[in-house]
Amino acid sequence: MTTALRAGIRRGLTEFGISLRTPGDVLFIIIGLVIVAVVLWLNRDAEFAPGAPLGWYVVPSVLTIQLLFIATYGLATVIVTEREDGTLMRARSLPSGLRVYAVGVTTRTLAEIACTVLPTLVIAAIILGGDLGLDALGVLQVLAMLALGTVALTPFGFVVGTVFRNPRAVGGWGFLVVGAVALVSGLFQPLSTLPAWVQPIGLVLPLYWIGHAMRSAFLPDEFGVVEIWGGWHVGLAFAIVAAWAVVGLVLAPRLLRRVARRETASGIEARRQAALQRA
């Protein structure tokens, strides 16, 4: 188990290093950061309440959305691509190969999140004059929830990656699925303002609680009134996300094994030919 863990971490960091040398991947990160900078700059003087800059509310929502898209949409794209090129089938044939693969993609996802979140915080601090509303405990809370949230959201990425057959499908339907999850989780507007039938869905999913913990780190205590049940419930948020993380640790290897068992050389070749025709 320890050997597989070390091998998976090495694999994930190696793949992350390769992605940093890939112009398309770097450009994707830069465009995202530019969009964040523009949004914060345009709202730099706005307040969502007296004495509370709008940026304090925008930044935790941006961080949560970044986490969602990297851990689900981005991960699903990687899995579908590596199903198509035979990487997943080759991993199945190696000792502890699928375990190493699962650790590797999770490590890569964590590295990608760090590479996106840290520049976002730096940009936000510069535009907002260094005042993000965070204290030392808030910083630890954000970092802890980012790590825990990554593990909790990973199963969604594996599910999307196993349902769709090619990267183009993930780019279409997968994007819509991820966007719908964000919508019902209160990332675009407070969950308490959404229809009553939507609220239980948001409360069951981990994403609302990830955003809840993020917002509680940035916002003053009195602004918890806009949340469900009228206050901050950070302990409950960590408990629910931790439960989803445990589910993720159990489900991820099983989902990979199930998909890998269905992969055959002839099936991979057929998808490869179909991809060439699409190109």
Task: Give a brief rundown of this model.
With 279 residues, the protein is an all-alpha fold. The protein has one domain.
| Helix and strand composition category | mainly alpha
* Overall pLDDT metric: 83
Order of helices and strands: HHEEHHHHHHHHH
* Beta-strand proportion: under 5%
Number of strands: 2
C-alpha-based Rg, rounded? 20 Å
Q: How large is the count of helical segments?
A: 11
The order of strands across the largest sheet is 1-2
Indicate the percent of residues in helices: over 70%
Major sheet attributes = 2 strands, antiparallel
Tally of separate domains: 1
Low-confidence stretches: none
Span from first to last CA?
Answer: 41 Å
Outline: globular
Q: What would your notes on this structure say?
A:
The chain is mainly alpha-helical and 279 residues long. It has one domain (2-278). It is 77% helix and 2% strand. The protein has helices at residues 2-20, 23-42, 54-84, 87-92, 97-127, 136-163, 167-184, 199-204, 206-218, 234-262, 265-278, and strands at residues 47-49, 52-53. The protein has a two-stranded antiparallel sheet with strand order 1-2. The longest helix has 31 residues, at 54-84. The chain is globular, with a radius of gyration of 20 Å. The model has no long low-confidence stretch (mean pLDDT 83).
